[in-house]
Amino acid sequence: MIEYIKGTLTEKEVTRVAIEAHGVGYNISIPLSTYEKLPETGTNLLLHIHYLVREDAHKLYGFLSKTEREMFRHLIGITKIGPKVALSVLSGITVDDLVNCINSGDSRRLEKIPGVGQKTAQRLLIELKGKVGSSLVSGISEGALAVNSGNLKIRDEAFAAMVSLGYNDKQVQKAFARVEQAVSANAPVEEWIRKALQII
Fold it and tell me: What is the pLDDT of residue 46?
């Protein structure tokens, strides 16, 4: 199973990229959220990969963050939602906002996404309710901002600490969205918690 592909970005389009790694060119489908953060062609790029094997095709789907890839996997696990619709969802809404919609039951926001009608939106809300939460609060894009796994772990630890203090996922998500704009990339857990408490 392919975890990620790291190489030279040779082509980029709104829905796909080509990455050359060790002399092999990989054609990878991407959501708009990833396309908007891509560097210029000719530079190095790392994409987290979902490798889909079917009888008639082997396809690669790439994401700048593991968070987006995890949400993509949740989406394609829903009845009658395939990779095309899943990419459309991630192209039309951030993971943070999607989690908020699921937790609040906001189907109207989802219905505005191209390819997602009323029935699909309702199915998405029903099947993902209770399955996504703090584990899918999106961190800073690893590929775009070069945040390492240690920084993401710090954020996750701070999030868990806030929840243990009695704050709900939605409160912490909103606070952390502001905190990440104010702290340095290597800020310790304590600083995340302190600033979040000031906001809440």
Answer: 97
